[in-house]
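Reviewer 2 asked us to include a model.

Predict the structure of this chain.
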Amino acid sequence: MSFTILRNGWYSENYGRDIPTVRETGVPLSSTGDGVVASASRRDLTEAIAVVVTTEGHEDKT
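Predicted model (structure tokens):
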């Protein structure tokens, strides 16, 4: 049985609620410390999923 594992990461839209605080303080708040977060929009992730499930070459991958 073939498989493909897809995992959504942090959505870019999640940052929207922090915009007022960042504007007021000039400091982006994050729990990553000096690390970075790779985010993508839900639309981008949806398009990627559509490609994976409708085209070949993604079997047995994570």
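The helical segments are 19-25, 42-54. The chain is about 30% helix and 5% strand. We have added this to the supplementary material.
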